[in-house]
C-alpha cells in the first residue's frame, strides 16, 4: 500500500521545483525527500520528474499523477488543519534515538512531565543517525558522528570507559601491577578473572583492551546479561569484572557497592553529542529535552 507521505513529498517537489526546497517545506532531510520520491516512482512504475541541473521538471506522467492527487491531498490537509483546531492545540510527537542505558539514567524519570508526545527508539548508532538524516528520528544521543550537511552536532557531555568490579573483588594484586606499570602482567591477571558482558555488544571491552594492551581480548565473558544496568546490578556487592561507561555506575561507585578498579594507563573517553537536523519544526521541544539531559549529566 502506498505511503501518503510519498504523495505529500511528491506534491512539495512539484510545487517548489527542487529537492532542497521541498525538504525545507516539509522539515525533513533532502535524502528523506529523495527516498520518498524513489519509493513512489518504484510503486507507480514510472519516472515522475526529469532532473535538469538542480531543477525537477515533472514528466507527463508526473503531471497526470499530480492532477489526480492534488484535490484529494488538499482535502486531507484541510481536514488535518480543522482537526488540529478542534482539539485546540496540536501536540507534536518527538522521536528520539539513544542507547537503552542512557534512556534509563536520564530521560526515563522525566517522561511524564514532557508537554508533548515522545517515541524512544533504541539501536545501533550508525542506523539511528541514518534514520535522523531520513527524518524518521528528530534527535539522537550519540558518541559517534557521521558526515552530513543536514545534521547538526552539539557536544554536551563525556564518558570515560572504565574497569569496574564488585565490592567483593580483591584488587590488591591488580593495583600493585598497575603501580609498577607491568601492563602485560595486568592483562594476564585480568584474563584470569570472572567477566560480565552484554548481549551482542562488546565494543567497550574491545576498545579498552586494544587501547591499553595493543590487542583484542582472546576470551569471552563468563556471564552475558541483557544490558549494562544488568551488569551493574549483578556486580552490586558481589564479585566479577566489567568494562563500562563511568556515568552508568556513578551512584554504585559512590556508595561502595561497585569498585572503580582502573581507568587504564590510556584513558578511553567518548564525547556525547546531541544530533538533530538543521531544519526542524521542533526546536523548542528539542531544547527542552536537551536541558533535561544537561541537568542529569553535567
Please outline what is shown here:
With 298 residues, the protein is an alpha/beta fold.
Strand and helix layout:
Elements: H1 4-16, H2 19-26, H3 30-44, E1 49-52, E2 55-58, H4 60-86, E3 93-97, H5 100-105, E4 117-121, H6 125-134, E5 139-142, E6 151-166, H7 172-179, H8 183-191, E7 196-198, H9 203-213, E8 223-225, H10 228-235, E9 241-245, H11 250-255, E10 258-262, E11 268-277, H12 283-297
Parallel strand pairs: 3-4, 3-5, 7-8
Antiparallel strand pairs: 1-2, 5-11, 6-9, 6-10, 6-11
How many helices? The count is: 12
The portion of residues forming beta strands comes to 15-25%
Q: Which runs of at least 5 residues are low in confidence (pLDDT < 50)?
A: none
Summarize the helix and strand pattern as letters.
HHHEEHEHEHEEHHEHEHEHEEH
Strand tally is 11
Give me the secondary-structure category.
alpha/beta
Biggest beta-sheet profile: 7 strands, mixed
Report, as a whole number of angstroms, the end-to-end distance.
Answer: 47 Å
The radius of gyration is: 25 Å
Percentage of residues assigned to helices: 40-55%
What general form does the structure show? elongated
Q: Taking all residues together, what is the mean pLDDT?
A: 89
Question: Can you walk through the features of this model?
Answer:
Belongs to the LysR transcriptional regulatory family. This is LysR family transcriptional regulator. By secondary structure, the chain is an alpha/beta fold. Helix content is 46%, strand content 21%. Strands 3, 4, 5, 6, 9, 10 and 11 form a seven-stranded mixed β-sheet that branches. β1 and β2 form a beta hairpin. The longest helix has 27 residues, at 60-86. The two termini are 47 Å apart.
Amino acid at each position: 500500500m502506498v505511503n501518503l507521505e510519498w504523495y505529500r513529498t511528491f506534491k512539495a517537489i512539484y510545487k517548489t521545483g527542487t529537492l532542497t526546497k521541498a525538504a525545507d517545506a516539509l522539515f525533513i532531510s533532502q535524502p528523506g525527500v529523495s527516498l520518498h520520491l524513489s519509493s513512489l516512482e518504484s510503486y507507480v512504475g514510472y519516472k515522475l520528474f526529469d532532473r535538469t541541473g538542480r531543477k525537477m521538471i515533472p514528466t507527463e506522467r508526473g503531471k497526470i499523477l499530480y492532477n489526480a492527487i492534488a484535490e484529494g491531498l488538499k482535502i486531507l490537509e484541510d481536514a488535518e488543519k480543522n482537526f488540529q483546531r478542534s482539539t485546540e492545540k496540536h501536540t507534536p510527537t518527538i522521536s528520539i534515538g539513544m542507547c537503552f542505558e542512557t534512556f534509563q539514567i536520564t530521560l526515563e524519570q522525566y517522561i511524564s512531565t514532557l508537554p508533548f508526545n515522545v517515541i524512544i527508539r533504541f539501536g545501533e548508532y550508525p542506523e539511528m543517525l541514518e534514520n535522523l538524516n531520513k527524518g524518521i528520528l528528530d534527535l539522537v544521543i550519540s558518541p559517534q558522528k557521521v558526515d552530513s550537511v543536514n545534521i547538526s552536532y552539539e557536544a554536551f557531555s563525556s564518558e570515560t570507559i572504565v574497569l569496574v568490579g564488585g565490592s567483593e573483588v580483591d584488587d590488591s594484586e591488580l593495583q600493585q601491577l598497575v603501580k609498577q606499570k607491568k601492563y602485560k602482567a595486568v592483562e594476564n591477571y585480568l584474563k584470569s578473572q570472572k567477566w560480565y558482558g552484554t548481549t551482542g555488544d562488546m565494543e567497550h571491552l574491545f576498545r579498552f583492551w586494544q587501547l591499553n594492551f595493543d590487542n583484542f581480548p582472546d576470551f569471552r565473558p563468563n556471564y552475558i546479561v541483557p544490558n549494562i544496568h544488568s551488569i551493574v546490578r549483578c556486580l552490586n556487592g558481589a564479585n566479577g569484572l566489567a568494562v563500562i561507561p563511568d556515568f552508568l555506575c556513578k551512584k554504585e561507585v559512590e556508595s561502595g557497592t561497585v569498585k572503580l578498579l582502573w581507568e587504564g594507563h590510556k584513558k578511553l573517553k567518548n564525547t556525547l553529542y546531541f544530533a538533530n537536523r538543521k531544519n526542524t519544526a521542533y526546536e523548542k521541544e528539542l531544547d527542552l529535552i536537551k536541558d533535561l539531559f544537561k541537568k542529569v549529566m553535567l
